[in-house]
Design a protein that fits this description.
The protein is α/β, with parallel strands linked by helices and about 220 residues long. The protein has nine helices and six strands. A six-stranded parallel sheet has the order 3-2-1-4-5-6, sandwiched between helices. α6 links the parallel β2 and β3. The protein binds 1,6-di-O-phosphono-beta-D-glucopyranose and magnesium ion. Magnesium ion (MG) binds next to loops.
Length: about 220
Amino acid sequence: QHIACIFDLDGVLVDTAVYHYQAWKQLANSLGFDFTYAQNEQLKGVSRMRSLDMILKWGGIEKSEAEREALASLKNSWYVAMISKMTTDELLPGSLKILENLKAIGAKIALGSASKNSALILKRTGLTHFFDAIVDGNEVTTSKPDPEVFVKAAELLGATNKDCVVFEDALAGVQAAIAAGMYVVGVGETENLPGAQLVIKDLSEITIAELLALKNQ
Ligand code: B16
Ligand code: MG
């Protein structure tokens, strides 16, 4: 099958958003402020340093470059402590099944994530072996909505961009996939993911047959 699938990690395959939220909240609280659930939504798919900059702005706080590096490391140490205890129970609905079914038809599978912690998360949740290529925050210089992460993933898979289907829960990720000329399946709410060819609530809502039809239309 001439189909290659590129999966975002947080919010598509695994439920790590709650841990990012807890760790950022703890950091903001330690600096004497808080942020809302709606603000937290804006952090999805956004890199660690950009997330920190947004949070500091919400708190009306300015920090030097060195202080920002230290704060980002502190947040990450709390986050890593949390994800180190993750289990396969934290896979989102349909993740395992779609990966198994794609493997069964010989489709190529890549990860395209902004996270620098993807290796640990994949290991803890037992997903590592499904991936023919892994591109995450350690490999890219420009973050989503720049298409770099998905373009690199396609290159590693030996697939042309138009043969790739990207699964994304963040608007920046949907925009990145469109910029790469790929098909996008949004995971979440339609109103949050304009531009996606199809939006599903979670991966249990799509079959391989539907996926092939989407790509061939
Ligand atoms: P880390 P994704 C993104 O992962 C998350 O959605 C975002 O909340 C996080 O800030 C970013 O990874 C960086 O993560 O701090 O672990 O490097 O959705 O692109 O898989
Ligand atoms: Mg995501």
